[in-house]
Amino acid sequence: MLPPNVYDAEPIPVAARAEIERLLSSGDLFRYTAPANAPVTLLEQDFAALLGVRYALAVSSCSAALFLSLKALDLPRGARVVIPAFTFAAVPSAIVHADCTPVLCETGANYRIDLDHFRQILDSGVEAVMISHMRGHTSDMDAILAEAAARGLPVIEDAAHSLGTTWRGTPIGTLGDIGCYSFQSYKLLNAGEGGILVSNDANLIARAVIMSGAYEHNWAKHGTDAALEAAFLRWQNALPLYNLRLGNLSAAVIRPQLAELARRVRDGRRNHDHVAQRLNVSPWIDVPEKLALEERAPDSIQFNLIGLNDTDVAAFTEAAAARGIKVQVFGASQDNARAFWNWRFLGEPPDLPQTRAMLMKACYVRLPARLTVAECDLIAEAILRAAQEVMGNLRAFGT
What we know:
Elements: H1 15-26, H2 39-51, E1 55-59, H3 62-72, E2 80-84, H4 90-97, E3 101-105, H5 115-123, E4 128-132, H6 141-150, E5 155-158, E6 166-167, E7 170-171, E8 178-182, E9 195-199, H7 202-213, H8 226-235, H9 248-254, H10 261-279, E10 285-286, E11 294-295, E12 300-305, H11 310-322, E13 328-329, H12 353-359, E14 362-366, H13 373-391
Parallel strand pairs: 2-3, 2-4, 4-5, 5-8
Antiparallel strand pairs: 1-9, 6-7, 6-11, 8-9, 10-12, 12-14, 13-14
């Protein structure tokens, strides 16, 4: 049996096609053309209801959502914003784009932030916290929110990989002041590109809506309550327009997928946990446990290689590739956008030995929810045999 293709997305639901055809026939692709209930507006309403928040704003990407979140907070130029050192390059890029300064925090072997280093950074003077739940791994949000609140710092959640994940039963992305999600093609909801931000703060959302490109009085088409309308009127004509809107076609693609989310979360968790159980049998592989208060919605698996040197790591990835499975080692590529030392736009990389050591042994393999358990077994077997080929076998698999 051939290894599965882990890169293709699920087909767009049939329910989207009638709406897409209607939009194409009408040419009504701009979110502000309709007097009310444009597809983007309906997506925002549905998404907010799904997560149990007051407001949502759909935009062109999750990066745009992160940028607008920083601008909505009205941070001063050069404001220091703490982020995990294990994240995607788009996160520090959004901070730079917002005229702020990223401050990188160490992350541990379990891919979560190091809380001791986090506290040191907070005490050194920062003005906002941006937590990336990288690849869906949730850091200790109780501790993060408590430390930020004690210092009066706003918290932005980069939940690009975490739609469907919960902390104490509450959706990730709704715990801080603002949460940002991605609709890029590898995420649980796929529009090719796109993003959305959520908040319960009317003032933050009003600022973000206007800056996203709600010129003149188009903000009224986002739906208003008394608090939101007052905020819109306060900020009308007082903010720059960055034009980061989502279009109606993308919204029409996304909305029918909301009904598929629970199933994708369930199947993605099943696939991840099944493969994790198999990989953890190997003496050369460790899949870190989730935190006790976290319920994940994974569409990939991360694991650490144990006892392998750089030569062994390279041989392992080659052996897996020969079996049809691409294993990405985050720190083993000269241009991997998740290795902080490759973010040359930030200048000289900081000294973060813990994160660097983790990235040199941390691996990533896609496990989309559409895979069957049998296909997951093929992936697990290829990874196990690749490790065994390179390192030998200290104990029998399955014991």
